Amino acid sequence: MIEIPDHVTALIGVEQYEEEGGFPVEHGYIWNTCAATSNGNPLYWDDELAASLTDGPIAPPTMLSVWFRPHHWSPGRTEPAVPLQAHFDLKELLKLPEAIISENTITFGVPVRIGDRIRSRQVLKSISEPKTTRLGTGRFWVLDVEYMNQNDELVGVESYSAFGYVRSETPGTTTPPATDEPRPDAAPAELSETHARASSLLLADATEGMDLPALEVDVSATTVVLGAIASRDWRPMHHDYDFAVNRNGTRDIFLNTPNQAAWFERYITDFTGPKGRLGQMTFRMRDSVYPGDVMALNATVTGTSTDDTGCGWVELDVTLTASGRTGTLCSAKVAVPTDPDDNPWSRSGDQWKP
Questions:
Q1: How confident is the model at residue 351, as a pLDDT?
Q2: Rounded distance, CA 317 to CA 337, Å?
Q3: In whole angstroms, what is the distance from residue 261 CA to residue 282 CA?
Q4: Which of 135, 240, 272, 297 has CB atoms 3.0–4.6 Å from 215's, for a disulfide?
Q5: Using CA atoms, how far apart are residues 120 and 144, in angstroms rounded to an integer?
Q6: Residue 194 pLDDT > 60
Q7: What DSSP designation does 41 have?
Q8: pLDDT tens-digit profile of 72-105?
Q9: What is the pTM assigned to this prediction?
Q10: Whether domain 6-173+189-351 has CATH 3.10.129.10
Q11: Which residues lie closer than 8 Å to 149 by C-beta, 6 or more apart?
């Protein structure tokens, strides 16, 4: 494997690709994202509730990457644009033709509001020494994407851990689906009672060791494609069976990273209710979620606390399994009210410390 060239090492810590999203934040993609995960959180559907909790409609926090993903096509462009361009640059510079995102950490800042113009910039944080995994031999790297609104307020930071590699075996060697018969579309996952009554969990209601009710979803090809469309992810492995199997060597198309984040958000706020405000989420993907899988989310409260500003926090470990396989492990920190009059969404500046 080639040594890391000096001009690549010199990129570490340098801000790259500062750009503004292609359109203002709008309701359509918010509703698409919620529909793709059957997320009935009234905060995103009820403008009166949004006015009372968040001073107007906001986007789900896990939609951060939606606003910086480029259009699949635009006039005058001759080459396809890709999100996270610094990631694709590293693949070329390090001569590593394949790459996966293995871990994602998102820290959430001020809410993203309808009409906001979100700007982003990409920062390479590190590149590892050569590593060999079951996928092949390559290097890990970490890229941060920082998101700001038109007022230069930080709305979030997304940190991607990726593994670029030379494949250890040829594409198409994985086990194909058990049948070529058409798969029926899955029924939408039912809304929890929490959202049906639009109530909110209080900090005292959560205790260490508490298990959350499980959420099970029958995943179909439609589930996967809806998630990719809602998150503006045009990469073919999330909608093109032939590409996924014969080019990527996977069993089928599979859920993408931002859609998994959206499912975690839906599951967590089913538990907390609309006053629950995500502070941070880290998830590590160990296996993919395919059509035909039963996706199950389970979680346990690992701790509760009140910080020095009086904000109440619940910490959770969430496990996503796919037909019994461990798919993704997630740890999350969510702010909840300390009493019925408290509202974590009203916190800003030094009062918000996720």
A1: 97
A2: 20
A3: 9
A4: 297
A5: 10
A6: no
A7: -
A8: 888 988 887 888 999 999 999 999 999 999 999 9
A9: 0.91
A10: yes
A11: 110, 112, 113, 116, 117, 118, 119, 155
